[in-house]
């Protein structure tokens, strides 16, 4: 479903990715690991069409992401939910409104929005905090809101870029448990991280990037860099 074919990315002469090739099939849970600067975020940006490859091809289902015009990106992104280290929540809206926002902009009926938002709030176990504002939440709770927001469109894939980077070990475990549950319910999961403990505990596929190249790609891998 996701295919990186000989993808290279150069930023102002700097080679961030070099000849990267991998495929991810539906319902996989794949960790993309490597030290800071290895190219993890660049992979995420290419996948969601935020950057274009310098050479090679990125496809997602029938979308040739490397060729999409900016006007076509919203169509692609309906299939991909994103979660980032810094949450990217709207501080002037409460939990419910943060999750409902994109659905309201898309013009969905209020009742449908309400059902969808309540469902994802239950999924991340935040049903009791729907009226709270973002500054009233812990870091772990903020990330659970971001995951709920990413899930509300029922995407095929969740891409989480360093989602536990700002969290303590307890909240890190809870976020990873939620991501695992989401994957078990059928959503493809791509986790970019430099956290060895998480990746080793997951025991799923691991793509290791080193200096912009795929160093290893192993089923049930460990993070051995
Ligand atoms: P990671 O997510 O593994 O830390 P990134 O994909 O963010 O790695 O970055 C890979 C390399 O590309 C780094 O050396 C980074 O400095 C460089 N880089 C990333 N984005 C840009 C950009 N917009 N302009 C120039 N260099 C960039």
Walk me through this protein's architecture.
The two termini are 28 Å apart. The chain is globular. α3 packs parallel to α5 and α5 runs parallel beside α6. The strands form two sheets. A six-stranded mixed beta sheet has the order 6-7-8-3-9-10, sandwiched between helices. Strands 2-1-4-5 form a four-stranded antiparallel beta sheet, with helices on one face. The chain is an alpha/beta fold and 225 residues long. The longest helix has 16 residues. The protein has a domain of 66 residues. The structure holds adenosine-5'-diphosphate. This is Cell division ATP-binding protein FtsE. It holds the Pfam family ABC_tran.
What is the average of the pLDDT values? 96
Pick out the low-confidence regions. Answer: none
Sheet with the most strands, sense and barrel status: 6 strands, mixed
Distance between the termini: 28 Å
- Order the strands across the largest sheet as they lie in space: 6-7-8-3-9-10
Strand count: 10
How many DSSP helices?
7
Helix amount: 25-40%
Q: Into which percentage range does the β-strand content fall?
A: 25-35%
Bound molecules: adenosine-5'-diphosphate
Which structural class best describes the helix and strand composition?
alpha/beta
Shape: globular
> How are helices and strands ordered from N to C?
EEEHEEHEHHHEHEHEE
Radius of gyration: 17 Å
Summarize the entry for a quick read.
This protein has 225 residues and is an alpha/beta fold.
Secondary-structure topology with pairs:
Elements: E1 2-11, E2 14-24, E3 29-33, H1 40-47, E4 55-60, E5 63-64, H2 73-77, E6 80-84, H3 95-105, H4 110-123, H5 139-151, E7 157-161, H6 169-184, E8 188-193, H7 196-202, E9 205-210, E10 213-218
Parallel strand pairs: 3-8, 3-9, 6-7, 7-8
Antiparallel strand pairs: 1-2, 1-4, 4-5, 9-10
Helix pairs in contact: 3-4, 3-5, 4-5, 5-6
The structure holds adenosine-5'-diphosphate.
Adenosine-5'-diphosphate (ADP) binds at residues 11-12, 14, 16, 34, 36-42.
């Amino acid at each position: 479903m996701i295919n990186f074919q000989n993808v290279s990315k150069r930023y102002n002469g700097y080679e961030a990715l070099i000849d990267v090739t991998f495929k991810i099939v539906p319902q996989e849970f794949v960790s993309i690991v490597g030290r800071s600067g290895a190219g993890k975020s660049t992979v995420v940006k290419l996948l969601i069409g935020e950057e274009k490859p310098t050479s090679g091809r990125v496809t997602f289902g029938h979308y040739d992401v490397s060729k999409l015009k900016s006007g076509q990106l919203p169509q692609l992104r309906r299939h991909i939910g994103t979660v980032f280290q810094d949450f990217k929540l709207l501080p002037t809206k409460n939990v419910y409104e943060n999750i409902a926002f994109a659905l309201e902009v898309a013009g969905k009926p209020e009742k449908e929005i309400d059902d969808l938002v309540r469902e994802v709030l239950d999924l991340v176990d935040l049903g009791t905090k729907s009226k709270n504002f973002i500054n009233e939440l812990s870091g772990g709770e903020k990330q659970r809101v971001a995951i709920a927001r990413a899930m509300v469109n029922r995407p095929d894939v969740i891409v989480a870029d360093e989602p536990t980077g700002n969290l303590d070990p307890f909240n890190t475990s809870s976020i990873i448990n939620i991501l695992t549950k989401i994957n078990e319910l059928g959503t493809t999961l791509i986790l970019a991280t430099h956290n060895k403990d998480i990746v080793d505990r997951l025991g799923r596929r691991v793509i290791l990037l080193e200096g912009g190249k795929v160093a290893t790609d192993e089923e049930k891998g460990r993070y051995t860099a």
